[in-house]
Amino acid sequence: MFIAGLTGNYGMGKSFVLSVFKELGAIVLDSDDIVNLLLHDKNVILNIKKILGNMVEKEDGTLDKNKVAKKIFNNRELRSKVEVLLHPMVFEKIAISLQKIKGKRQLVIVAVPLLFEGGYQSRFNRTITVFTTQKLALERLMKVGVSGRDAMKRLKAQLPIQVKKKKADYLIDNTDTKQKTRNQVKSLWKQLLDEMG
Questions:
Q1: Which domains does the chain show, CATH number per domain?
Q2: Cβ(2)–Cβ(106) below 8 Å
């Protein structure tokens, strides 16, 4: 099994690239999806409330993701505490998923937004950074209803994209059309298959 870690900054097209890999036949895992599942776990909710306070809880007992986001993107210390809580659980879930496909000759792509921030690159055979300009990322995010201010806070919470580009084994430029991005993913898919042998 060959495992590649896929990263990129907020609004730069990681989800689209992941979807193309899936179309091509890769097994894909998205740490954002895992986090969303964890945020419905009663023990996780309890621990997040201990860090962020009861105000982040909705009337039905679930977490208000907007309030959680507001708190953690305004306070680096709180964000770090939540990451320390969630990240080990995310990788535990990833490990369980990988165990189920062990032994098979399979290419697996795992999307991890904070791959380099958390120093997780050693967990993967290769790393891929999806990038575009910050201006374009902001434009795309605002088109889907994210305010410019919120988008900037999230982008500032991540390593600069130039740093992620330098650290990655492979790059996908998502600045142009979706078709051009798709072509790059197809080309990289073939390269990764060759590397897998």
A1: 2-191 (3.40.50.300)
A2: yes
